[in-house]
Structure formats: structure tokens, C-alpha cells
Design brief:
Chain lengths: ~300, ~425
């Protein structure tokens, strides 16, 4: 559906995007994950035709931006990070305006406008102005405006910024429905939870470079351990003793808390508890967590995703 | 075409749903033009009085008649004050000028007409009312001249007999010259005593202005009267429409900041459509605003298009396009909406001022009048004046229209050149 190869964009000496390549297929969500300033928005700018790349090609269903920019743009729906809405026009008028920019016939435009309002759950607010909407409703209207011309690919640049959890879930439901309709979605975010929930495949980008890409399973496989075990202990035990337990990939101690990286909770967790008992330590609290994208990013870059 | 129309319609809907913008664009020019129009007044309206103080230190019959003549002058509102108050009245701003008639005026004035010592009339004036000084000086000269000559020509005038005696006694005059002058004084006395006996004629003949004037307004249609509101509505219309152009230009910068411009650019729209729609919508709004402002001017202030109606429309259309291109230029060269708005308003006010929108450009010094020809607003105001109260035909609209379209082309070219398309 959408294929980008060798994208490069520099501002002066600073490379905003360096050799980025990605593909997204019909009915698939590609998560573009990275910290603020990683190059996600520049990549979206290039994919949507707003930013002229220094090098590289973008193709949607065989149509390139350079070859036929109008046809290319008709196949793309952009949901910008900022709320691109005219506050003094009604929700319906906003959608119809953006639809008209694609030269849609009037009857078809009205039909589509009503339909996309229904998709995002704003059908009953069609005649209201966005200035009366909540942040989440405005975000959904922002998405509706990008959908009205029925694009093949939807580019979403941090579409849940500043949205409450309830509205965020509503947006996720909308996007999953679109995915079910066969749309290809590129979703940029710096929230790993969003990428984990929505994305079929994830591209992790940092300083303009793709540092990893694949499915969640493939990315987690790159972690040093699949699970993290956290144990609050009363008593003293050498960290080296814990690190030497079979199955423990990494051990850290901070105050009374011991954090251990292990692959198999059942198998390796028992060894840890036995070692603590043997050392005369009393376990006050124990918790575990599986590895996440934060860990993946940390492992790949040595930095936190939200740094 | 749908996209172009949709963009234009969007701008129109947004502008006309903004009550504050509407108030600024329509109500403000009407109110201010009404004020300026009433201030400058029509040619047949009653002129404002000039407050003048007079101090008569001479207290002679002649000086009394001069003061009486000044009192009778319709343009003046004369107050007699003591010597101590003469300049104080002016300094306090209570009068525009104060005339002091010196002691000895009655004795010296007559002979001064024939080369004798001239008495000095002191005029204190308010420097903030320099125009009033010119009027006071002119009318004072007229009344003093008339009064003194009248006194001189009177049969019973001591001035006349005094001059005759001094001529006879003069040793410096040649005999023939002395004889001629004496005969002239005798002839005057004879004429005055026979043609206008003192009992029958209240006044003797006097020197008066050797002409009368017939004043006709030099507009293309003499039957139509000049309406000062015509100029003030043209000027204020131009000013506020240009300010509306500034608003639309700054609006584009705000759209950029809010991400709306980026969203528009993501659609399959050419640059020509994007920028052209902006000029078109701005021009249409300008035309609607002008139409409403002029409708009010015609309905309430008697402004008429005494010249060519197509010429008037052509001037408005050219200025509307100029406004659109000006707004686009602001959007192209501006960086932040806040900073751009301030600078653009300053530039607009300068253009409007130099264009003669506040006061007619003929008041400017000559060098400034020439300079103002390079300011597009001058052509807009002149064009509207030509088509309204001057009553000129269509071909007189062509030059202003051509110049304004030229400016619009230059502004548009600069805007396209400077516009930042990269997001």
C-alpha cells in the first residue's frame, strides 16, 4: 500500500531524517515510535508531501509523489498533530470543506461527511462548532476531516496528544475499525502503550534513524530478557549471588529492592526465591512485568523513550 | 474549481461571522468618515468664527471706526480687552489673535498712505492656529484700508485738510508738483461736499477692492455641490479595507501556526489555487465592505457617484485586488502573527496618511505630494474622488486603476517569491 525508501531530510547540518525506510500494507497499523524530536513528524511530512525530502521515494499503490502529486495526495489522509479545525465552522462544515479540497462531487461529499461523523461518533454534534467540543471530540473531528475523501492511507501524527483516557480509547476504537475496513495506518507516538495496543508492526526511530522495526514479538526478542522480577527483601544478599543464579540475565539492587531480568518466570523465579531463602532474606513483596517497548528503546539506545 | 470556491467561501463565512472584524471594517470607517466629513465641512456651510481680541490704545475717532469695522466682520467674533489682557488672551487659547491699535494711529494712518510714518498694529497670534493668522491679517488689512481711506476722502476730514496744509508748507516739493497735489485735495473736498452732503450721506467714498469675485466649484458637473463626506468616506474606506487586508494576511500566519495551513497543503491543491483563493476572498470581502460603507455614505451623508459608475466600480475592484495582494505579501514576509500585525498596521497607516486618506494630499508640501504618487493609496483615494464628487468620466479612472493593478502585481510577485512553502 505505502512504501517509503531511503528518505533523507536535513536542516542545515542537522539530519532530521536519515535513510528511513518503511512499508505499511492494507489493513495494517504501523507504529512510528520515538522520543520528541526523533524525526517522526518530519517523516510524516515527507510521506504526506508537505516536506520535500532531500532523497528517497514514497509510493502509494504504485503512485509516487514526484510522478503525480495530486493523485498521490488523494490517496493520503493526514491527521496532523495540531488540531487543524476551523473553530467558527460547524463540525459538518469543517468536514465538507476538507472534502471539497479534493474536488468531491457535492452529493457524495455530503454523504461521506455524514458517514465519517458517524464513524468518529460525532453524528449528533454535526451542527455544533468545534469551539464547544472537548479535546477528545476535537481530535476525533480532526480524524474525520482526514477520512472524508476516503483515502487508502491514513497518516496520524500523535493523534491523541492532550486527550483524556476515555477519549483516547474512543479514538483507538475508531482506528481499529478503520483498520478493519482495510485502511493502512501510520501512527506516530511517543507513548509506547499506544504503539503496543494498536500497531501490528513498529518502527522505532531516534535522531532521524530507524533503530529497530518489526512486530512486537520480534522487538521483544531483541531484549536481553523477556521478564522483569522485582523483589523487596528484608536482609542482606550479595548482588553477585543473584546474578549467578541460572536464568538471571541481569541483577540490580537499589535499597531493599532487587530487580532481576529473566526469561522464564516459572523456571527462573523459583531459583531466585530459593537463593534468597538460603541467604536468610525475607521477601516482603514480589512483582513481575514483561519487557516493553520502553525496555526495547533503552536496550537499543541506552536512553529512556521519554528523555 | 470546487476547491477554489470552497476556500473562498470558507474565508467569506469566517470573516462575516466574526462580529468584531465586521465592526472594525464597516462601522468604524462610517463613524470616522462622518466625523472627518463634518469637520472639513461643505463649501456652502457656515464658516466657524475666529475669536479675536482688540485693544484700542488710540481711542481716536478713526481707531474707533476701525474697531467697529472689525466688529462688523462676520468671520470675527471680536472682544475688546485692556492692554494688559491682550497677549494673555491669546496665550490662554481664548482667542486666535489679538490686535493692538497703537496710540497715535488716528493721526499717522492717513498720512502713512502717502508715504508718512506708518503706525504699527501689533498682532499677537496663537501659533497653533497659523491658518487663522492669515485670515486675520487679510481681513484686518481690508477693513483698516477701507476705514482710513473713507476718513481721508471725507469732505470734513481733518486728515484731508491737514495733508493739504502740509503740502502747501512743504519746501521740498517742486512748485508744479505742489500745485497739482493741492488741486487734487481741493477736487476731492469739492466732490465729497457736492455729491454727498454730510446730512444726506452717512458715508464718504473710500478705497475698496477693485474687483468682485464670482466663485464656482470646478467639478465636472457644476450643478452638483461638493460633498466633503465623499472624500472622507473614500479615505476611511481605503484605510479600513487595507486594515482588513492586514487581518487576512495575519490570519494566514495564524493558520500556519495552528497547523491549518499544513492541512490545506496536504490536499491536492496547486500553489496558485491556495494563494489565488486567498487574494480572491480578500478582494471579495473588500468589495462587500466598500459596498456597505458607500451605501451608508449615500443614504445618510448624501455622497453621490457624480462621475462614471463603471469607473467607480473599476477603481473599487482594482483596490480590492490590491488589498488582497497586500494581505498576501504580509503573510509571505511576516514571521510571527503578533510582530507582523504591529508592523503591518504601521505600514498601512503610513500608506493611508501619505495617500491623502486623512487629509487631502494638496495640503502636503510639494515634495510630499510628489512622493505620495508612489503610494498606492493615493491612487485609490484620487480615483474614488474622481468618480464621486469630481464627477469625472470613465477614462479618468483608467490611470488609477492601472497603477493599482500594477502595485497588486508587484505585491503578488513579491509574495510568491518570498512565500515559504516548506513545512
Amino acid at each position: 500500500m505505502l512504501e517509503a525508501l531511503g528518505l533523507r531530510k536535513s536542516y542545515g547540518m542537522r539530519a532530521a531524517v536519515a535513510d528511513v525506510a518503511l512499508t505499511v500494507r492494507s489493513g495494517e497499523v504501523l507504529g512510528l515510535l520515538g522520543p520528541n524530536g526523533a524525526g517522526k513528524s518530519t517523516t510524516i511530512g515527507i510521506l504526506s508531501g508537505l516536506t520535500t525530502a532531500d532523497a528517497g521515494t514514497v509510493r502509494v499503490n504504485g503512485v509516487t509523489l514526484a510522478g503525480d502529486p495530486d493523485d498521490f495526495k488523494r490517496r493520503i489522509g493526514l491527521v496532523p498533530q495540531d488540531l487543524a479545525l476551523f473553530e467558527d465552522l460547524t463540525a459538518l462544515a469543517n468536514i465538507e470543506l476538507f472534502g471539497a479540497l479534493y474536488d468531491m462531487p457535492k452529493a457524495r461529499l455530503r454523504e461521506r461527511a455524514v458517514h465519517v461523523l458517524d464513524i468518529v461518533g460525532l453524528a449528533d454534534r454535526a451542527r455544533d462548532k468545534p469551539s464547544t467540543f472537548s479535546g477528545g471530540m476535537k481530535r476525533r473531528l480532526n480524524i474525520a476531516c482526514a477520512l472524508v475523501h476516503d483515502p487508502d492511507v491514513l497518516l496520524l501524527d500523535e493523534p491523541t496528544a492532550g486527550v483524556d483516557p476515555q477519549s483516547r480509547n474512543a479514538i483507538f476504537d475508531n482506528l481499529e475499525a478503520l483498520k478493519g475496513q482495510g485502511k493502512a495506518l501510520v501512527y506516530t507516538t511517543h507513548y509506547m502503550e499506544e504503539a503496543e495496543r494498536l500497531a501490528d508492526r513498529i518502527v522505532i526511530i531516534d535522531h532521524g534513524h530507524v533503530v529497530a522495526s518489526g512486530t512486537l514479538t520480534e522487538l521483544y526478542a531483541a531484549l536481553p530478557a523477556a521478564q522483569t522480577l522485582q523483589v523487596d527483601v528484608e536482609g542482606d544478599i550479595e548482588i553477585g549471588v543473584l546474578a549467578s543464579i541460572p536464568g538471571v540475565k541481569r541483577a540490580q539492587k537499589s535499597g531493599e529492592r532487587v530487580t532481576l531480568a529473566i526469561d522464564d518466570l516459572t523456571r527462573d523465579g523459583c531459583g531466585v526465591l530459593q537463593a534468597l531463602a538460603a541467604a536468610g532474606c525475607k521477601v516482603r513483596h514480589i512483582s513481575s512485568d514483561r519487557g516493553n517497548l520502553e525496555d526495547v528503546f533503552l536496550a537499543l539506545t541506552g536512553r529512556q523513550l521519554r528523555d | 474549481m470546487n476547491a477554489f470556491i470552497a476556500l473562498v467561501r470558507k474565508d467569506l463565512v469566517l470573516y462575516f461571522s466574526n462580529r468584531r472584524a465586521l465592526l472594525m471594517s464597516i462601522a468604524a470607517p462610517i463613524l470616522i468618515a462622518a466625523f472627518f466629513g463634518s469637520l472639513f465641512g461643505n463649501s456652502d456651510s457656515k464658516p466657524a468664527h475666529i475669536n479675536v481680541a482688540v485693544t484700542d490704545l488710540d481711542r481716536s475717532e478713526l481707531s474707533g471706526r476701525v474697531v467697529a469695522a472689525l466688529r462688523g466682520e462676520a468671520t470675527f467674533d471680536v472682544t475688546e480687552v485692556g492692554e494688559a489682557d491682550t497677549s494673555a488672551q491669546v496665550k490662554a487659547g481664548k482667542v486666535a489673535a489679538a490686535i493692538t491699535v497703537p496710540a497715535g494711529f488716528g493721526k499717522l494712518a492717513g498720512s502713512a498712505m502717502f508715504g508718512g510714518t506708518k503706525p504699527e498694529l501689533v498682532v499677537h497670534y496663537d501659533p497653533s492656529q497659523a491658518m487663522a493668522l492669515q485670515v486675520v491679517r487679510g481681513l484686518m488689512a481690508q477693513h483698516v484700508m477701507q476705514t482710513v481711506s473713507q476718513s481721508l476722502m471725507s469732505a470734513s476730514s481733518p486728515l484731508l485738510s491737514d495733508l493739504r496744509d502740509r503740502t502747501l508748507q512743504s519746501t521740498s516739493l517742486p512748485d508744479q508738483r505742489r500745485l497739482e497735489l493741492t488741486q487734487m485735495f481741493d477736487s476731492i473736498a469739492k466732490v465729497q461736499s457736492t455729491s454727498m452732503p454730510a446730512s444726506a450721506a452717512p458715508k464718504a467714498a473710500a478705497f475698496t477692492l477693485p474687483y468682485v469675485t464670482r466663485e464656482e466649484p470646478a467639478s465636472a458637473r457644476p450643478e452638483t455641490k461638493y460633498n466633503s463626506y465623499s472624500h472622507s468616506f473614500a479615505g476611511m474606506g481605503v484605510q479600513f479595507v487595507l486594515l482588513m487586508g492586514v487581518d487576512l494576511g495575519v490570519g494566514l500566519l495564524l493558520m500556519r501556526r495552528m497547523g491549518l495551513w499544513k492541512r490545506l497543503r496536504a490536499a491536492p491543491l496547486s500553489r496558485g489555487k491556495l494563494l489565488g483563493s486567498r487574494i480572491a476572498s480578500c478582494a471579495l470581502i473588500a468589495l462587500v465592505v466598500f459596498a456597505i460603507v458607500y451605501a451608508a455614505a449615500m443614504a445618510a451623508f448624501g455622497v453621490r457617484i457624480d462621475g462614471s459608475v463603471p469607473g467607480f466600480i473599476a477603481v473599487l475592484v482594482a483596490f480590492a485586488l490590491l488589498t488582497g495582494s497586500f494581505g498576501l505579501l504580509i503573510a509571505a514576509i511576516g514571521r510571527t502573527p503578533e510582530a507582523t500585525r504591529g508592523l503591518a498596521i504601521l505600514a498601512t497607516l503610513l500608506m493611508v496618511m501619505l495617500g491623502g486618506a486623512w487629509v487631502p494630499s494638496f495640503i502636503f508640501p510639494e515634495w510630499l505630494q510628489k512622493l505620495s504618487l508612489f503610494v498606492p493609496t493615493r491612487w485609490a483615494v484620487d480615483g474614488l474622488d474622481a468618480m464621486t464628487w469630481r464627477g469625472l468620466p470613465f477614462h479618468d479612472a483608467l490611470l488609477p486603476v492601472a497603477v493599482m493593478l500594477g502595485f497588486a502585481a508587484v505585491f503578488t510577485s513579491l509574495a510568491i517569491w518570498r512565500f515559504d512553502w516548506d513545512e
